Amino acid sequence: MSAEKVKEKKEDQNEEKKKDSVEIELPELTRPLEKMTVKELREIALEIPDLKGVHAMNKQDLLDNVKAHRGIKAPKPKKASRSVREMKKQIQELKAQKTALAAEKNRKQSEILRRKISRLKKKTRRAG
Q1: 109 and 101 in contact (C-beta within 8 Å)?
Q2: Which residue from 17, 24, 40, 82 has the least number of CB within 10 angstroms?
Q3: What's the confidence (pLDDT) of residue 23?
Q4: Does the CA dihedral 121-126-127-128 come out positive or negative?
Q5: Exposure pattern of 87-126 as b/e (b: 16+ CB <10 Å)?
């Protein structure tokens, strides 16, 4: 009879643990979707009824699906403010100024123009 009481006690303790774990609920996540972790996004995505393969998705896929479900539109990507031709024209002008400054032996201004030219070249590579 004492063995039965021990089993009952263990069963009661197990049931209490199960109740405690079920009753704990996560607070509503109020952070922006982009700042959430993949785990948090998966929890949200699992609530979407027609979405399948949630665990195989990466963060960007999860974000896109959750935003689509909630009706959030993604912002359009920004266009280059200037065309590549305009930037290359400016590079040529800056090169001419740089050679003139080099002839005057003005190293500081020449170095500043060199950096500006370098930045513009990078922009043309990205835009092209």
Answers
A1: yes
A2: 24
A3: 44
A4: positive
A5: beeebeebeeebeebeeeeeeeebeebeeebeebeebbee
The Cα 43–Cα 25 span in angstroms is 13
- Other C-beta atoms closer than 10 Å to the C-beta of 66 total 19
Tokens for 70?
């909630």
pLDDT tens, position by position, for the chain (128 residues)? 566 776 677 677 666 655 554 444 444 557 888 899 999 999 999 999 888 999 999 999 999 999 999 888 877 666 656 788 999 999 999 999 999 999 999 999 999 999 999 999 999 998 86
**Residue 7 in tokens:** 């089993």
Cβ atoms of 32 and 15 closer than 8 Å? no
Find the angle CA(122)-CA(126)-CA(127) to the nearest 5 degrees.
115
Domain range list for the chain: 12-70, 84-127
- What was the pLDDT predicted at 4? 72
Q: What is the 8-class DSSP label of residue 17?
A: H
How far is residue 127's CA from residue 65's CA, in Å, rounded to a whole number?
29
